[in-house]
Specification:
The complex is a heterodimer of chains A (about 350) and B (about 270).
Chain A lengths: L3 E10 L2 E11 L4 E5 L6 H9 L6 E6 L2 E2 L10 E4 L11 H5 L1 H5 L4 H14 L15 H14 L4 E5 L7 H18 L2 E6 L2 H7 L2 E6 L2 E6 L1 H6 L4 H6 L6 E8 L2 E4 L2 E4 L6 E7 L4 E3 L6 E10 L4 E7 L2 E7 L10 E6 L5 E3 L9 H13 L1
Parallel strand pairs in A: 3-8, 3-9, 6-7, 7-8
Antiparallel strand pairs in A: 1-2, 1-4, 4-5, 9-10, 11-12, 11-14, 12-13, 14-20, 15-19, 16-17, 16-19, 17-18
Helix pairs in contact in A: 4-5
Chain B lengths: L2 H36 L14 H7 L4 H32 L5 H10 L5 H15 L5 H26 L2 H9 L4 H30 L2 H6 L6 H9 L4 H21 L1 H7 L6
The chains are: A alpha+beta (about 350), B mainly alpha (about 270).
Chain lengths: ~350, ~270
């Protein structure tokens, strides 16, 4: 078992900075998701950890050992590739046993481990077939089984589910989670799909333009994004951001007056999740004009505007709202985040976080 | 049938005829004997009294068998060198990023643009000094330089067609770069490499100029026939041509699918 320390990793391609001084600590047995839009550097970071790419500066330590300059085979890790990369000229059995064979394990051990990994991923009936005879989902399972067969201390996964169709992805996600929990492997999972990251990970590291924006548990990242980018990227629909004026320590939101965080003047950004806006009476809320309604089954999503800015609200499905209607909304004050309009960074985050923890308790 | 389709089919027929009619005429001459060679118009079908007398006559010419053996020797050498040198070269072109890679690629092809005729004299002198003159080994070396550009470029495209992730997976799962090449890249490229080998063999088998210049007594089949057949009767010449064509056509036919996929027409 091993923890991973990523210490000040920078990677540049010519003048392009792919990763800028990235620090990450991943605990032994932890499942960390690297989340970000395409081109944010998440795959580059994973490949640097694997040794498939060389960092421009910085160190990678696995289990306390500096592996920064070691070739991939000496880093003691396994990897699942985005396009699976199962060897087409080997049977499933040979594929799954490949790592062990290369490590010089004896035949009995290889057979035992292959059988175990195959059972774990339900691919026993396909052991003697070739990858070309398998479906995408089955190949995916082979790739994971090949990685688990060597009982790695560290498992790296690069968007392993992105090539599967939606239903299969959901199924594999749940299965992966249970399999990896059982194995207790330290896992780094790269994805651009925030639901996948939320559903699988113990902690999420959100990357944007080569920088880590926030590291935290899925709940934390969802409820208290550290930047407007995180709030907008994590969660579907994204968080609402309203730029509001601050006067004498209070923020004006339509008819509502909110207490501003200490030391803010001029303008401030209010961040609130669509489901944290509650319909209320005119006296207690700000007005919201409905432009589009989308009945999504479990709830209705309303898109409209307040104080001249776009807002999304999620309301229960039992109360249909006509398009063009004006509603009054009240934010749940314990779920509100404040951001700096210039930098996009959260203001008084410690304070809000404590409030949030209090709210989570009831 | 649309006009477009008609033109398409006509094109195919013309191209096939362009290649097949000469081969057919040579074959006819080779098995038809003296009468068919000299008759006009040519019979469309092979004569009823199909005889291999002419062929036998051809193989009875002194030196044909030994020179065929030299041809095989040179061709096998050419094939071996092309693979041993060309496959790693192709791998390097496919996988390593180095300045001028594209230019280098072009330069490799340009070696073919250099006329061998200009090289003939210095090459002969050089080969005599090195003791390679008049040996199948020397001819094999010369043919390697002709086949190598293709070997390099074809293997490069073979390796390029193999996803990089397969190799990376091999590295992650415990392979050194050399081992990954042997365990993953080579097996996947093997059918294509076999095609490269046969291609090199055929290039050497068909080559006549360098082989004629570089040998005196140990002539390869093409060079030997060139010097001997000019004094033979016409039908024996046809038999000789036929014997030269058959292996090439056969080999190319065997690897045709590979060669197509190599040129990117039918990538798997």
């Amino acid at each position: 078992m091993a923890n991973i320390v990523i210490d000040n990793i920078t990677k540049s391609f010519g003048s392009f900075i792919a990763l800028a001084r990235v620090d990450l600590n991943i605990a032994d047995g932890e499942f960390l998701a690297l989340l970000g839009p395409s081109g944010c550097g998440k795959t580059t970071l994973l490949r640097i950890i694997a040794g498939l790419e060389t960092q421009s500066s910085g160190q990678v330590k696995i289990g306390g050992r500096d592996v920064s300059v070691l070739p991939p085979r000496k880093r003691g890790l396994a990897m699942v590739f985005q396009n699976y990369a199962v060897f087409p000229h080997m049977t499933v059995r040979q594929n799954v046993g490949f790592g062990l064979r290369m490590a010089g394990a004896d035949a009995a051990r290889i057979e035992r481990q292959v059988a175990r990994a195959a059972a774990l991923l339900h691919i026993q009936p396909n052991l003697d077939r070739y990858p070309a005879q398998l479906s995408g989902g089955q190949r995916q399972r082979v790739a994971v089984a090949r990685a688990l067969a060597i009982e790695p201390t560290v498992l790296l996964m690069d968007e392993p589910l992105s090539n599967l169709d939606a239903l299969l992805r959901l199924e594999m996600r749940a299965e992966l989670k249970s399999v990896l929990r059982e194995a207790g492997t330290t896992t780094i999972y790269v994805t651009h799909d925030q639901t996948e990251a939320m559903g699988l990970a113990d902690r999420i590291a959100v990357l944007h333009a080569g920088r880590i924006q926030q590291i935290g548990t899925p709940t934390e990242v969802y409820a208290f994004p550290a930047t407007t980018f995180v709030g907008g990227f994590v969660g579907s629909p994204p968080m609402n951001f309203l730029t509001l004026p601050v006067e004498n320590g209070s923020v004006r939101l339509g008819a509502l007056t909110l207490k501003s965080p200490t030391g803010c003047e001029g303008q401030i950004v209010l961040g609130v999740r669509p489901e944290d806006l509650e319909p209320t009476v005119a006296a207690e809320g700000f007005s919201f004009t409905v432009r589009v309604t989308e009945p999504l089954g479990p709830h209705i999503m309303l898109t409209g505007e307040s104080v001249g800015q776009p807002v999304r609200v999620v309301v229960p499905p039992d109360r249909p709202v006509p398009v063009g209607a004006t509603m009054h909304l009240r934010p749940r004050y314990d779920r509100v985040v404040w951001m700096d309009p210039a930098s996009g960074a959260a203001i008084g985050r410690e304070e809000t976080r404590q409030l949030g923890l209090g709210a989570a308790g009831n | 049938m649309t006009l477009r389709r008609a033109v398409f089919i006509t094109g195919i027929v013309v191209l096939c005829a362009w290649t097949l009619v000469p081969i057919y005429l040579i074959a006819l001459g080779a098995i038809g004997g003296r009468t068919v060679v000299n008759s006009w118009p040519k019979p469309f079908l092979p004569p009823a009294d199909l005889s291999f007398a002419t062929m036998r006559e051809f193989f009875d010419i002194t030196g044909v068998w030994t020179s065929a053996l030299y041809s095989v020797e040179a061709a096998v050498l050419c094939m071996a060198f092309s693979i041993v040198l060309g496959v790693p070269g192709g791998y390097a072109l496919a996988r390593f990023v180095f300045p001028g890679a594209t230019t280098y690629r072009l330069l490799i092809l340009l070696t073919r643009a250099f006329p061998v005729a200009i090289l003939a004299l210095p090459l002969t002198v050089g080969f005599i000094r090195l003791g390679l003159y008049d040996t199948p080994f020397g001819v094999g070396l010369m043919h390697t330089t002709l086949a190598l550009p293709f070997a390099v470029l074809i293997s490069a495209s073979l390796f390029q067609a193999i996803p990089r992730e397969l190799e990376e997976a091999a590295w992650v799962f415990g392979c050194s770069p050399v081992r990954a090449f042997w365990r993953v890249m080579l097996p996947l490229a093997l059918p294509g490499i076999a095609a490269v080998a046969i291609f090199a063999f055929v290039i050497s088998w068909n080559e006549v100029f360098a082989a004629s210049v570089l040998t005196v007594r140990h002539k390869t089949l093409t060079a030997y026939l060139l010097s001997v057949l000019s004094e033979s009767p016409l039908h024996v010449q046809f038999a000789g041509g036929f014997v030269l064509i058959v292996p090439s056509v056969l080999f190319i036919f065997l690897v045709r699918k590979r060669l197509f996929s190599v040129w990117g027409i039918a990538n798997r």
